Amino acid sequence: MSITTTHLRSALELAAASVPVLPLRAGKVPFGNCRTCKGNACGGRPNMKTPGPCTCLAPCHAWAAATTDPHVLNSPQWATAWRRAAAVAYHPGGAGLTVVDLDNAAAIAWARDSLPATRTVPTTRGEHWIYRGVMPSANAVRPGVDVKSLMAYARWLGRGSGAIVALPDSVRALALTDAPAARRAPQTLSAPLGGQSGVCRHRSPVFLDRGIAMAEQSITGAREAVHATVYRTFLAVLSTHGRCGCLTDTHVARLFTAAQAKGETPRHCTDAWTNALTTLGL
Known about the structure:
Blueprint: H1 3-16, E1 21-25, E2 29-30, H2 70-73, H3 76-84, E3 87-90, E4 97-102, H4 105-114, E5 119-122, E6 127-132, E7 138-142, E8 145-148, E9 154-155, E10 165-166, H5 169-172, H6 205-220, H7 226-241, H8 249-261, H9 266-280
Parallel strand pairs: 6-10
Antiparallel strand pairs: 1-2, 1-3, 3-9, 4-6, 4-8, 5-6, 7-8
Helix pairs in contact: 6-7, 6-8, 7-9
């Protein structure tokens, strides 16, 4: 069996288990965007579950290309990528998972002392610890430790061993270790902001959905001063919906995805969001 066939078979098996997958090229990196999508000129893909402004059928936009659709995985547009693929990756957040990537022996020793035991997958230099639940991703949360969940990808290295347990607060807190104590990051949005009923009091849930869509368009349409546009957009969304109890992680993920399609990093998105929260006193 060829490497191409092996990778594609693994991808199809994962997709059948509702795990969104994509091919990786040498160096453990996604394939670059096609000519039409180069520089995200197409507008990018808001997320991997719902259609966005980009209609490209190729494996573009890194983690946002991850899919569970066997027709896409077997399509001619993906065939070239599979022939050149060096590995299979998956979108942990799309599968409802969080991966704690431990890159060396010291990081593994720390995890064994500090985190709940869960499913473990050996990697080239360390281990992946996999938890059930999602959170924003963050790199270098401590020496040799990355967190991969929403808007990120992880290499598929097998099913590993051990039972998967629920994502603990100790892992969620890792993404906050470098933030000032007065800040609140979007990881706290696992429930609606403000602890209200979850129904937008302004008009209806449709009003919220329209507002998020307009915010995505504002970010996507930015031609310059992207940092400032992202912050102003986050501030506008929070000033309107931050206290009525209707914002959830799904809404935040949509905004973060739009920002990252314009070149923002996950850390920049988190900083802009937490600064907006602080400014509004939320």
